[in-house]
């Protein structure tokens, strides 16, 4: 097993909320992940925190796995996938949390896979007038933006401060636009200065234009959501 594979290794753990497949090392945790919330103690919730129904022998209480609050079965009956907490199976969630998790499913099922598969761009670092053809992808542990060409760079997702998507095709009267590139700024660890990187889809790689546009759209989705707080 290589060093990277060992660092990204996962283990199966059982929590009160269910089975989770989590990284063995905390340093390998995804920046898109969420910690399990503390459960509201049973003695502090005599009534459903949604409909105010009193709990008794017949009306049992249930904890939402996403927010940790107490609900009756009616208000907390949905079992929905929750990949941000690494749950293996769908888990019980209240109606509000279930809706959020269902919306996030698109990001995990589509955009995240697109980012990890990668796309090809001409990459320009800083104020350089030279660009390099590189394959850009999200690392397997989702912590780094990896740029591979003749050179190799890794940009930590948490250090990215701004993302600007470059488009073409806009007309004053309206019309479709197409993502053709991206400018991002990030902090190099140990420095407060921002470094700029520009990504441009090559015009002579028409077969990759659609892939590049999809990758840029997924990156925009990440940046618009605020990376760590939410993904939508």
TrEMBL record:
SMART domains attached to this UniProt entry: FYVE (SM00064)
CDD domains found in the cross-reference section: FYVE_ZF21
Superkingdom of origin organism: Eukaryota
GO molecular function: zinc ion binding
The keyword Zinc appears for this protein: yes
InterPro entries on file: FYVE-type_Zinc_Finger (IPR052113), ZFYVE21_C (IPR032031), ZFYVE21_C_sf (IPR038632), Znf_FYVE (IPR000306), Znf_FYVE-rel (IPR017455), Znf_FYVE_PHD (IPR011011), Znf_RING/FYVE/PHD (IPR013083)
Keywords: Metal-binding, Zinc, Zinc-finger
Record-annotated FYVE-type domain positions: 42-97
PANTHER family, per database record: ARRESTIN DOMAIN-CONTAINING PROTEIN D (PTHR39490), ZINC FINGER FYVE DOMAIN-CONTAINING PROTEIN 21 (PTHR39490:SF8)
Protein name: ZFY21 protein
Native organism: Rostratula benghalensis
